[in-house]
Design brief:
By secondary structure, this protein is of the alpha+beta class.
Amino acid sequence: MKLYVGNLPFTATEQDVQDLFAEAGAVETVQIMRDQATGRPRGFGFVKMVDGAGGQAAITKLDQQPFQGRTLTVNEARPQVKREGGFGGGGGGKFGGGGGGRNRREPRW
């Protein structure tokens, strides 16, 4: 069972999270999501438990519980929604909409 873990402390490591979830059941994998550009943790991740019973136990035991100074959110992970398109995207705003953000420059005036 794959679990979403939100509001993780930015100082938490995969090993810290694995040790915490191991109290509820056998942990298969832990993945803390990181920013692609900076490599910094984004404050959430995923824990894959070996079985559903361990996953339910982890949700019951750890959801809304303090961990390293923050209150965790733990629930069953939903499937990732496929997103269309590439870079940037529309949106109005002061200078009009449209266009991706890849080579966009601000006006110079």
